Amino acid sequence: MELGMHVADFTWDGGTPAIGPALADTARAAEAAGVSRLTVMDHFWQMGGDIGPQENAMLEAYTTLGFLAAHTDRVLLHTLVTGTVYREPGVLAKQISTLDTLSGGRAGLGIGAAWYADEAHGLGIPFPSTAERFERLEETVQICLQMWGGDEGPYRGRHHTLERTLNSPQNISTPHPYLMIGGGGERKTLRMVAQYADACNIFGGPDAAHKLDVLRRHCEDLGRDYDRIERTTTFSVTPDTTRDALVRRLLELAATGFSVAYVYGQGFSDPRRAVELLGSVLPEVAEA
């Protein structure tokens, strides 16, 4: 099993002036420990609830990924996940290509239908109905794949019209940057994963095995090799999480069918302590 570190909280010791240095140190330490991916949320406010109030620190995702690219050499970099309504698709495709170019081929796109209505309404971001957001999600994925595939022709969908999908320079990653579609919706999301994506990201709860079975059936219906899709999940650790408890959780997820776990720290005043915990379990779970 591969481990990714998901940075979901920036409220650390030292306040705002310490965020940049702490994030750079954390990224370098994670890469040195053997973590293979670094991700950030694509939010503009903190989410509320257990992870912290909306007023807590949150960084814009793609600026942050560019910063992380400058402080790392090997890890895959992407959001977990971008809300499809936050950026025009052509701009989003270009952002990923730019990150891929400047990182030496280490960029990916994690994307979903978006859910954070309070954030969108607060910042004036259009937030249409659930049905329309899913339509926009599929069009955004199609536009990104078209631009990354070198097709400069027009794209005309129900919600998006692009007259020329020029993208230069093209990506270093081949055939295109890593593409993850996040969410566990059985009828729409997992069908889109089977049709377009390199990876899914679903919660590792009691119904996870069922969700993976649904994905497998979509793959069969579409003639896609299920085993070519990475099955990924995300969960949190806290300062109270023990090494043994983390190993048990990761082995359970591997037995369920997940090959990658993105782990985020919750309640750490210094994010490097979370890196130490992840690094301590990697030798034991790497072959799971």
UniProtKB/TrEMBL annotation:
This is F420-dependent oxidoreductase. PANTHER family: ALKANESULFONATE MONOOXYGENASE, CONSERVED PROTEIN. It comes from the Bacteria. GO terms for biological process: alkanesulfonate catabolic process. GO terms for molecular function: alkanesulfonate monooxygenase activity. InterPro entries: F420_OxRdatse_Rv1855c_pred (IPR019952), Luciferase-like_dom (IPR011251), Luciferase-like_sf (IPR036661), SsuD_RutA_monooxygenase (IPR050172). Residues 22-254 form the Luciferase-like domain. Coiled coil: none annotated. Keywords: Flavoprotein, FMN, Monooxygenase, Oxidoreductase.
